[in-house]
Each structure stands twice: as C-alpha cells, then as structure tokens.
Amino acid sequence: MNASERVVAEGARRRRRPTKQGTVLSEQLIVETALRLIGEHGAAALTVRRLGSALGCDPSALYRYFRDTDELLLAVADELIGRTLRTWAPAGDWRGDLRDLGLRMHADYLAHPQAAMLTFARVTGRTHEVRSVEAILGVLRGAGFPDGEAVRVYHVFVDLTLSFAALDASTLVLSEQARNLELQAWPDIYARQPERTHPNIAAAAAVLVAEMGRSGYPAALEMVLASAAARLQHVRPSPPAGA
Q: What Å distances lie between residue 236 and 96, 141, 143, CA to CA?
C-alpha cells in the first residue's frame, strides 16, 4: 500500500455493496483475514493483491481502511493483544494476576507464531494496547508499587513476555524436521558428553534433556515476579505511625 493514499473517515468506511464473496468489508474483517494469511504465508501475506483476492474485493478498497501495510500490521498486533484481554480479568492478587496475564499472552502469541514474529516488537498505540498498559499499571499501582517502580516492572514484564513469545514462535515456524533435530540434540549430543571432559554437562544431563525441550518462559516469569515482590518490600510506602 502507498502511505500517501487517503484513508476514508471512520464513519464513511463501510462498503455499500458486498464483495464478490458476499461479505461487507470492515476493519475487523480485514485484520482477521490478514492474521489468517500471515499464518499461512508469513510476511508475504501483507500485500494488497493477496488481501484483495482473499477478501474478494478490489485491492484499492483496502485504502479506505489502512494507509499502508504497516498500519495494517499494527492493527494485527493490536488484535492479538485484544484477544488476550478478552479472556483475562484481574482478581486482586497482583502476582497471580500478572502470572495469569503473562501466560495467556504467551499462549495467544504462540497460537499465531508467524504474526508473533512480525509484531512482537511493535508499539501499536491502538485501543487494545492502551487498555493493556492501563490495566497492568493499575494492577501494579494497586499493589503499592510507586509509579516509577510500577513502570519499570511493567516494562520488564511485557518485554520478557513478548521476547519469549518471539523466541518460542521462531521454533514453531521451523520445519518439523528442523524442530526434531534441535530437540534430539539434547539427548543425542549433550546427554552423551563424557564426565571426564564435560563434568558439568554430564552431571546435569538428565535435567538438561527434560528442561530444554520446553519454553523457559514460565520459569523466567516466576523469577521476575519474585524479584518484583522482593522489591515491593523495599519501596512500598510505610504506613503512618500509629496506624
């Protein structure tokens, strides 16, 4: 798409006539179609020609909704965030709430690994992302973190989650043969290292084989939450004397 193309105002975007497939275009339909095509074709899906073909419309009609493919990609990123938010609600325990949110975010990104790799580092500035920032800061400030600490914990929590999502997604998009070769390296190579030359690997071989075949995100998340909890004990304002 050309960034110089004019985007039609929100209220005038709806197509008056259905597409060749009998559907009426909307921003949500375009985003969902783009997300599906990214899953099938990766970044190559983000062309007006391919999207127009999938939607059964003239590619130029997409300019009524998005200025260019980058704006569409940001909308896809925001849709992934929205899907997580629709299944999560804080229960009042900040540590449990962030654990639940983080695991849901990670799982939702891995359900769309190609899109995860394309969007994990983007700041959308769109509705769902704004809601997520507000919600996470609310959990942290409600727990007693001063604003500066709340923002730092938010920053680490989100970057950790998205980084692991991209890392784990990069494995999922490998061919089945490549994934199997990587997994087999632990029992076939590392677990067979002799104690004489590699005593540390040999001592931990069974644990390495069991651990390295799964994501490190849950353990990393627990480490971050434990560190944040310890930090909270130092930065939480003391109650007034006599309270």
A: 19, 10, 9
